[in-house]
């Protein structure tokens, strides 16, 4: 093992000193130019190390150039605003590029100019200021404590309990007022939990018929005979509620066409029609529309948190954080051959909530009926 | 000569060539099968030698997985009834013949023997086995004839959950994925909807009509060709790349600026 | 120090103000207030300036935005959405993007500034944490900072939901799904927030007033308090030549620091303008209007919510029903626990550290991260925990980009979220000790000079010279991590008061592990063999490679 010989003397100037870590300020300040090169107007104060005049002059020129660029870019911004109209994707692209480009240039040039100014024109600083402990000292504290007690005594709050107690009494309900005011943020809470349990599929249409399933996006009713390609899937909404977001948030469905032999026991076959099964599209985890359907594996994947359901087997959960299967909707065809819902979901669709309870278990106990 | 060579590399050249090819292909079908919706008619009017040539091609390139009579094997599904549309989609997008078994067949450059004629012949053979959907005509997939806004609503209802809001693709379970739609031709998009390749479900014509499909194609093609008015598109996959840019570009640039502002100047040794 | 007379207009104005405000006294004390210089001290300013830019661009946006969920048919100039039914909020966001000059630029700058606001707070908080700058007397400012970070997340969440496009609606839906799953109060909270059933027609206008008034108001107040405390307590400084716990060395506020801060504001503004111009963010027109029936693949929150998204994705299914009530633990645990661990951990750390080290003294010199290895390791551990969750929040994009199985990313993440922090702790601890040893070597043996010398017996050595004084002062700024004195039991085997009982014993044990000098700086003198004496912290033979 070789040792380092500290006794070998090296002329200081010849040995490069390696710089690691964060250099401290004001190293080697003595190497700076002598007084006659100092920029004008800088007083001789300890810790203020003036720039030499040559550097300062160069800095001034560079900074001035930067500021001029800012001026020109700002003018260009105004010109672009007038010159480029918007109104479609292409013109917006041009306008954004011109406005944003000139703004960027103006700001960055200004920033660079100021940095050059600070670094090349202003002196270097190595000022030292004393810190004092944050605590204000025993005298001040004592004074404050005494004054506080004296003030409390003067005000009478300590000696006059009636005053104190009625003041507290007055303050208590006042603090509650804002909370009371918030009550009307929602209309009637009492039927809210039960609303969460029902969807518009349970309601008959105006003329007392079962509600039809219609294609999301076109609103066309679906003839069972037309939805005839195994491996088919469709996003379905209730007729009459195509644009009612509150209804859609609970009632949107995915309709899947199976070959009859593919359907497993988890699916209620009485609620299917000719291999067509309808599940709630609203994920039972936190409510994203779960509709990434793989026709080869019959997996339904939710894109938000990747809960995976087996569509062939009652949409039971096979992966991910969802704890319950997607509820199945009982469907049939009406006399014109269109798909309709014969009843509401047996269990509340969508994410779990405190008052929900184990609706699935109740349904099982009641033999498949809610 | 140079102009042609340069033109071949133009980003639109691919589309131009494909559109030309599709036009020719479509033209053939329109001539050969005036009622192209009807599978039976297509078979009836398909030339017998196409079927024979197709069978030869099938035996050479497809039968090892799909069986000598396309009845399917352990390695590949039966092709009886999948139709010429499925053949055109799978072969023209390079997915078939499959190079490596995996979770899913990727889009890739087509095999050397693949051209419009061989696809047509192969399609005719498969069509002759059990019918099925046939490739759409050029009218049916012409983006210019579709209504983008209506197509967009259907696209959002049925496609984006897997393919993402502009068709940039997305992940499915167990290594499967919904491929990006950037390179898919209008015909391939149509064929994918009616045949349901691989994990993709089927959207048959009786539920989503051919006109509606053309609207969707108009939207998909329109949006993917639309410039990004706000600068670089960052892959158009949403906030993930935006977050990366905020950190890698934004915070890094500002850290560099901070270093410049506070840096001690190297002392000049005179 | 006469540098000329003050020009008349300035003298006039200033005497006008001083006559009325007495501002002269304040300025006398503060104009030349000294600010220490270090690049990392500017990181917090990213957040400060981003906030100002958020206020400016945000105000512009409010001139055009209509916070209404009423249905309209779009008649604006973006063709692929023509005649589509949508909310007024979304239509007005499209209007800002395509029919207002500079509107898209302002929207994008607002969004980028929001990302940099949170990212700036994060890097600033990490700098403060790793240098121990939260120690007494700055605990209160640290707590304000934690509050600011929490509010910033809330501010981001409310802003993300305003344009009412399909992506923002997905975020809102998840927020609703999480809120409604809370035991006992869940349905009440969602009922009041949404004015009834989800999504209702109220939430956007409610989020709007939270987003543009209430939360920014609190943010502004807290940021001001943060600044005032920093001003009063004076900034910490890095260890170095002439810097002590009782002074502050650097540049004066006027003119140097003011100019630097101004330049940095312009840089922040410029970088945000750069991003807003050249990188498209949140292209709402591509997402389409919100409907609870649809969602896009790869629907993600903004990056600062990614860790919550990741923890929701990692959690296996778990829901229990008791007495007719439902507890969806696979929502509650991932939504509350990681956030709780991180925010509570941040808030309590200064106080826990004080309890463990028994240190009640003021600290104004920042610690280099290596010099408090346990703190640095805990920090890296937390970063890893956060990072794994964050990464998993994008596991679908990772899966689709790198062609790996989505399910496997989840399985791997479930393991990594526990193993990762542990590994990070151990690795960081070893690296810190290694760096301390390297410091000791610099002090003890000097630095390599690049000069090779041949010794009389033919051996070649490299000459080491003492480090330059700035570096030496920086390295020598190290102080041992404080620990509670006299934790050991006395001769009768009775531990001192306060160290009895399980908690006291734990405290004593932790204090011993956390505090103290792991690698003494001046051990490095002379020959390498001396390193054997601190073999308990690391094999002495490591030192060879470091010193020679």
Automatic annotation (TrEMBL), chain A:
Highest taxon, organism lineage: Bacteria
Ranges for domain Rieske: 271-340
Main location: membrane
GO cellular component: plasma membrane
UniProt keyword list: 2Fe-2S, Cell membrane, Disulfide bond, Electron transport, Iron, Iron-sulfur, Membrane, Metal-binding, Oxidoreductase, Respiratory chain, Transmembrane, Transmembrane helix, Transport
Annotated GO MF terms: 2 iron, 2 sulfur cluster binding; metal ion binding; monooxygenase activity; oxidoreductase activity, acting on paired donors, with incorporation or reduction of molecular oxygen
Family listed: Belongs to the Rieske iron-sulfur protein family.
Identification of the protein by name: Cytochrome bc1 complex Rieske iron-sulfur subunit
Organism: Streptosporangium carneum
Gene that specifies this protein: qcrA
TrEMBL record, chain B:
EC number annotated for this UniProt entry: 7.1.1.8
Protein's UniProt keywords contain NADP: no
Binding site for heme c 2: 159, 162-163
One GO MF term attached to the UniProt entry: quinol-cytochrome-c reductase activity
Keywords: Cell membrane, Electron transport, Heme, Iron, Membrane, Metal-binding, Repeat, Respiratory chain, Translocase, Transmembrane, Transmembrane helix, Transport
Chief subcellular location: membrane
Subcellular location: Cell membrane
Recorded topology in the membrane: Multi-pass membrane protein
Protein name per Swiss-Prot or TrEMBL: Cytochrome bc1 complex cytochrome c subunit
Native organism: Streptosporangium carneum
Lineage, uppermost ranks: Bacteria, Bacillati, Actinomycetota, Actinomycetes, Streptosporangiales
From TrEMBL, chain C:
SUPFAM superfamilies from the UniProt entry: Transmembrane di-heme cytochromes (SSF81342)
Gene3D superfamilies with a match to the protein in the record: Cytochrome Bc1 Complex, Chain C (1.20.810.10)
Region (Disordered): 518-548
Keywords from the named record: Cell membrane, Electron transport, Heme, Iron, Membrane, Metal-binding, Respiratory chain, Translocase, Transmembrane, Transmembrane helix, Transport
EC number: 7.1.1.8
PROSITE patterns found in the cross-reference section: CYTB_NTER (PS51002)
Cofactor: heme
Protein known as: Cytochrome bc1 complex cytochrome b subunit
Organism annotation: Streptosporangium carneum
Taxonomic lineage of the native organism: Bacteria, Bacillati, Actinomycetota, Actinomycetes, Streptosporangiales
Gene this protein is translated from: qcrB
């Amino acid at each position: 093992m070789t040792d380092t010989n500290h006794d070998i003397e090296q002329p200081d100037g010849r040995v490069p000193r390696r710089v690691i870590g964060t250099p401290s300020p004001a190293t080697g300040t003595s190497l700076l130019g002598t007084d006659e090169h100092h920029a004008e107007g800088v007083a001789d104060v300890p810790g203020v190390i003036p720039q030499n005049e040559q550097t300062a002059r160069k800095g001034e020129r560079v900074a001035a150039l930067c500021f001029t660029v800012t001026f020109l870019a700002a003018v260009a911004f105004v010109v672009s605003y007038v010159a480029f109209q918007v109104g479609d994707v292409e013109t917006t692209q041009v306008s954004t590029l011109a406005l944003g480009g000139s703004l960027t240039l103006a700001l960055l040039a200004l920033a660079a100019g100021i940095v050059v100014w600070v670094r090349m024109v202003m002196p270097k600083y190595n000022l030292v200021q004393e810190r004092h402990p944050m605590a204000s000292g025993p005298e001040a504290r004592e004074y404050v404590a005494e004054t506080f007690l004296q003030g409390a005594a003067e005000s009478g709050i300590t000696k006059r309990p009636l005053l104190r107690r009625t003041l507290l009494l007055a303050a208590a309900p006042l603090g509650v007022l804002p909370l009371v005011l918030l009550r009307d943020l929602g209309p009637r809470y009492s039927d809210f939990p039960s609303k969460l349990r029902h969807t518009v599929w349970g309601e008959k249409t105006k003329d007392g018929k079962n509600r039809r399933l219609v294609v999301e996006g076109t609103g066309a009713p679906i003839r069972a005979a037309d939805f005839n390609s195994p491996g088919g899937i469709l996003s379905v909404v209730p007729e009459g509620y195509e644009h009612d977001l509150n209804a859609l948030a609970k009632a949107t469905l995915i309709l899947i066409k199976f070959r009859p032999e593919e359907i497993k026991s988890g699916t209620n076959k009485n609620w299917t029609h000719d291999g067509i099964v309808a599940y709630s599209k609203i994920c039972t985890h936190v409510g994203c529309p779960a509709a990434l359907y793989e026709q080869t594996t019959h997996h339904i994947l939710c894109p938000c948190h990747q809960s995976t359901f087996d569509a062939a087997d009652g949409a039971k959960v096979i992966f991910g954080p969802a704890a319950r299967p997607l509820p199945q909707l009982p469907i049939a065809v009406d006399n014109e051959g269109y798909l309709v819902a014969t009843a509401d979901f047996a269990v509340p669709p969508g994410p779990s909530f405190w008052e929900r309870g184990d609706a699935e278990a109740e349904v099982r106990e009641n033999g498949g009926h809610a | 000569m140079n102009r042609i060579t340069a033109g071949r590399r133009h980003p639109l050249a691919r589309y131009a060539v494909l559109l030309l090819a599709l036009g020719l292909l479509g033209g053939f079908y329109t001539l050969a099968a005036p009622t192209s919706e009807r599978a039976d008619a297509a078979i009836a009017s398909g030339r017998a030698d196409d079927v024979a040539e197709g069978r030869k091609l099938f035996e050479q390139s497809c039968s090892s997985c799909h069986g000598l009579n396309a009845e399917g094997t352990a390695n590949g599904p039966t092709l009886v009834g999948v139709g010429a549309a499925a053949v055109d989609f799978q072969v023209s997008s390079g997915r078939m013949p499959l190079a490596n078994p995996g979770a899913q067949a990727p889009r890739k450059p087509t095999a050397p023997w693949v051209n419009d004629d061989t696809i047509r012949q192969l399609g005719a053979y498969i069509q002759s086995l059990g019918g099925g959907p046939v490739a759409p005509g050029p009218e049916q997939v012409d983006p210019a004839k579709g209504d983008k806004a209506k197509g967009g609503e259907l696209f959002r209802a049925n496609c984006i959950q897997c393919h993402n809001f502009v068709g940039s693709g997305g992940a499915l379970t167990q290594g499967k994925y919904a491929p990006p739609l950037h390179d898919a031709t209008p015909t391939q998009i149509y064929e994918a909807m009616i045949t349901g390749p691989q994990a993709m479900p089927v959207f048959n014509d009786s539920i989503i009509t051919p006109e509606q499909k053309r609207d969707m194609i108009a939207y998909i093609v329109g949006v993917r060709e639309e410039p990004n008015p706000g600068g670089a598109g960052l892959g158009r996959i949403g906030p993930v790349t935006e977050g990366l840019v905020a950190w890698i570009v934004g915070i890094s640039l500002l850290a560099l600026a901070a270093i410049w502002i506070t840096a001690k100047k190297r002392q000049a040794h005179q | 120090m006469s540098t000329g007379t003050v020009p008349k207009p300035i003298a006039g104005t200033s005497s006008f103000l001083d006559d009325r405000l007495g501002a002269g006294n304040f300025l006398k004390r503060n104009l030349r207030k000294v600010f220490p210089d270090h690049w990392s001290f500017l990181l917090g300013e990213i957040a400060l300036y981003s906030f100002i830019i958020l206020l400016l661009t945000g105000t512009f946006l409010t001139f055009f935005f209509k916070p209404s969920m009423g249905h309209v048919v779009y008649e604006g100039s973006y063709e692929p959405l023509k005649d589509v039914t949508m909310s007024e909020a979304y239509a007005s966001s499209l209007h800002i993007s395509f029919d207002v000059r500079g509107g898209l630029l302002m929207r994008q700058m607002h969004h980028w500034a929001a990302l940099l606001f949170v990212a700036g707070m994060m890097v600033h908080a990490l700098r403060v944490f790793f240098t121990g700058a939260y120690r007494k007397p700055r605990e209160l400012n640290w707590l304000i900072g934690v509050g600011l970070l929490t509010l910033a997340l809330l501010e981001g969440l409310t802003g993300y939901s305003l344009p009412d496009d399909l992506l923002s609606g997905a975020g809102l839906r998840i927020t609703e799904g999480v809120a409604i799953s809370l035991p006992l109060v869940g349905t009440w909270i969602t009922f009041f927030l949404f004015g009834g059933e989800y999504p209702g027609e109220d939430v956007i206008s409610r989020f709007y007033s939270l987003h543009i008034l209430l939360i920014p108001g609190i943010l502004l107040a807290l940021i001001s308090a943060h600044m005032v405390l920093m001003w009063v307590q004076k900034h910490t400084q890095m260890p170095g030549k002439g810097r002590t716990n009782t002074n502050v060395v650097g540049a004066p506020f006027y003119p140097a620091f003011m100019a630097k801060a101004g330049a940095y504001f312009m840089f922040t503004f410029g970088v945000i303008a750069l991003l807003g111009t050249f990188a498209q963010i949140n292209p709402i027109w591509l997402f389409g209007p919100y409907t609870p029936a649809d969602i896009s693949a790869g629907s993600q929150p903004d990056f600062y919510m990614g860790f919550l998204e990741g923890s929701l994705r990692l959690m296996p299914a778990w829901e229990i029903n008791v007495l007719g009530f439902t507890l969806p633990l696979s929502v509650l645990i991932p939504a509350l626990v990681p956030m709780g661990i991180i925010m509570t951990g941040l808030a309590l750390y200064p106080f826990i550290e004080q309890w463990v080290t028994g240190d009640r003294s003021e600290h104004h010199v920042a610690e280099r991260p290596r010099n408090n290895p346990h703190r640095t390791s805990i920090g890296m551990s937390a970063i890893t925990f956060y990072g794994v969750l964050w990464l998993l929040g994008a596991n679908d994009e990772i899966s689709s980009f790198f062609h790996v199985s989505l399910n496997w990313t989840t399985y791997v993440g479930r393991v990594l979220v526990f193993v990762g922090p542990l590994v990070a702790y151990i690795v960081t601890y070893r690296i810190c000790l290694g760096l301390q040893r390297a410091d000791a070597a610099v002090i003890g043996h000097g630095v390599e000079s690049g000069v090779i010398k041949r010794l009389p017996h033919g051996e070649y050595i490299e000459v080491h010279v003492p480090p330059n004084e700035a570096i030496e002062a920086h390295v020598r700024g190290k102080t041992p991590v404080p620990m509670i004195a006299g934790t050991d039991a006395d001769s009768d085997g009775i531990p001192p008061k306060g160290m009895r009982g399980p908690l006291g014993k734990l405290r004593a044990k932790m204090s011993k592990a956390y505090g103290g000098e792991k690698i003494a700086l001046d051990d490095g003198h002379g020959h390498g063999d001396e390193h054997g004496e601190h073999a308990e912290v690391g094999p002495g033979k490591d030192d060879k490679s470091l010193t020679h």
